[in-house]
Amino acid sequence: xxxxxxxxxxxxxxxxxxxxxxxxxxxxxxxxxxxxxxxxxxxxxxxxxxxxxxxxxxxxxxxxxxxxxxxxxxxxxxxxxxxxxxxxxxxxxxxxxxxxxxxxxxxxxxxxxxxxxxxxxxxxxxxxxxxxxxxxxxxxxxxxxxxxxxxxxxxxxxxxxxxxxxxxxxxxxxxxxxxxxxxxxxxxxxxxxxxxxxxxxxxxxxxxxxxxxxxxxxxxxxxxxxxxxxxxxxxxxxxxxxxxxxxxxxxxxxxxxxxxxxxxxxxxxxxxxxxxxxxxxxxxxxxxxxxxxxxxxxxxxxxxxxxxxxxxxxxxxxxxxxxxxxxxxxxxxxxxxxxxxxxxxxxxxxxxxxxxxxxxxxxxxxxxxxxxxxxxxxxxxxxxxxxxxxxxxxxxxxxxxxxxxxxxxxxxxxxxxxxxxxxxxxxxxxxx
Length: 432
Ligand code: EPU
What we know:
The protein is α/β, with parallel strands linked by helices. It has helices at residues 22-31, 48-59, 85-88, 96-105, 124-132, 165-175, 191-202, 234-247, 266-274, 312-320, 339-344, 375-387, 407-412, and strands spanning 2-7, 14-17, 38-42, 63-67, 70-74, 82-83, 107-111, 136-140, 143-147, 157-159, 181-185, 206-208, 214-218, 227-229, 254-257, 278-282, 285-289, 299-301, 324-330, 350-353, 356-361, 369-371, 391-395, 417-422. The protein folds into two domains: 2-19 and 232-431, Enolpyruvate transferase domain (UDP-n-acetylglucosamine1-carboxyvinyl-transferase, Chain); 22-229, Alpha-beta prism (UDP-n-acetylglucosamine1-carboxyvinyl-transferase, Chain).
């Protein structure tokens, strides 16, 4: 297995480039199997989740090839409308194949994703929504078996409660091709969904209301393959802004390049400024000036444009560096706190009560051997390692590799003492 070894202390300085978005890339890849042709997607990050989803697409008969910083997806020969358990269990977003295969083949057999590292994540809205638009849905030995009537999806209307990124994507994938009209209410308005809708539109899909809570779709017979460019990763930007605020030298700006700060939403940006950190936006870069002292600022996650749940673990580390008490409340996922016991091993003073963590900041964190449990938890451990005294070993970084591209090389170019090492989880500490 691999781990990251971080010697805390050296400040973060210089320029950190932000990679292309993982969560926007995945629906774009799913959309690429709708037309009978070759799609070129530019700015697709080199990540484990992209590799996994490429395999999922290949199973159906698509060819997926890396071309520099992008992907070429040839969907001329899709013949096997299935996403197997072995791949779906590795990455929940494989469930996008339900809508994509229905749109392309009129039928799909897609494994149910099951739970995730921090608890249950239901797919009821995906299934109820597709049924409301006219798909027949059955469950068979852990698989969803979906079928459209002859002539394609008849269409219909469905209101999400709560609004869901994944379910909005799935319904749009299925509804863009066909003969009927569909109306999706309380649709997700996350930037990842907007970028995906704009690609569907470029492919010829008849969508209206993009970026609003009500999207209407008129199914058409066939979509066209296009060349399309992905957006920067908003969660990586937020992670790096937090890193700069806590691990930079006070008063010395850190430059984050290739960014879309408007994709972060106002709640994150407002909370960030209240910490005392300053930022300015200049020509696609965010320039962060770390504060002399970090103010404790409580946050509550909410769907976009609220504070992203995907940044709450990282915010907890920021609060550990602030003097005073503050809370992190997650309203999107009530039990996404696997990082807390690991951070406690580094000296974090925090208590969890239901969906809220109270952090008493100010005590210096200390390096320790800690273990990643999921993607965002693992990057919170890396952030803690930057500010901790001594050496932090972050194990099981296959979680981190799902969503952060070349993290250690980016950080080491900014002055951080970090390296990747092989290790044996069961060996004694002095052996690795
Ligand atoms: N929900 C339901 N039923 C459903 C679907 C969702 O009750 O059928 C609930 C969820 O439990 C949650 C809320 O709706 O409380 C919103 O979940 P959503 O469906 O929007 O999440 P998702 O599409 O499964 C995406 C991101 C997640 C991110 C969430 C929330 C991708 C591939 N995943 O998941 O990203 O946390 O939106 O913003 O885009 C990550 O990158 O680390 C990650 C987990």
